Amino acid sequence: MLTNKTIIRLITTGLFFALFTTATAQAVEKPRVKIQTNHGDIILELDPEKAPKTVANFLQYVDDKFYTNTIFHRVMANFMIQGGGFTPTFERKETRAAVINEAENGLSNVRGSIAMARTTDPHSASAQFFINVVDNSSLDHTSKSPRGYGYAVFGKVIKGMKVVDTIRNIPTGPGGPFPMNVPKSSAIILGMTYINKPAPVTAPTTTDAPTAPALKGN
């Protein structure tokens, strides 16, 4: 016959195990977002543990449907594909305040990673992002100087790299305000949707600051 002490111990152990299992499952699960393009879907897995402010910022734009009917306006086959700031007619979209640069989080700009585009100001990223199509370690954080701060990686493509490669191989030329690297045939982001919606996020307050200009490649 079980004693009261034994029963209490079993209940306590079981409760702890249940709580531990639940907490572990919640910690492991990362937000995933589907980018729907006119060339197919790209599935992203974001990393809020390593880039909490960047992920919160991106997810707020997703929640606001900001990226619907925007384009990949800068495509470099041996570098990256960049989008999220312009409509198909090259109208620049109004953004919120810039987000702090989290490039020193240990995540690298390897093939398939997604990072924030910005100007020469390390902390100027707002809505535009890019997906690395090759390993670009030169974009990683090396120091807290304007030259060495790097570009903040906040997730990776877990499905749809064939779509990314299709876009990267579109012939390019001048287009809109850009003298080069604009796809000659459309690469449109039709929308972004959650696959598993995370808890509510906090992002920078609304401002009339302009979208950050395109990422400057090497």
Describe this structure in a few short sentences.
The chain is an alpha+beta fold and 218 residues long.
The count of helical stretches stands at: 3
By CATH's scheme, which homologous superfamily of the largest domain applies?
Cyclophilin-like
Question: Could you tell me the strand content as a percent range?
Answer: 25-35%
Tell me the CATH architecture of the largest domain: Beta Barrel
Stated plainly, the CATH topology of the largest domain is called Cyclophilin
The coarse overall form would be: globular
Distance between the termini: 74 Å
Largest sheet data: 8 strands, antiparallel, barrel
Write structural notes for this entry:
With 218 residues, the chain is of the alpha+beta class. It has two domains: 1-29; 31-196, Beta Barrel (Cyclophilin), CATH 2.40.100.10. 21% of the residues lie in helices and 27% in strands. The longest helix is centred in the first third of the chain and has 25 residues, at 4-28.
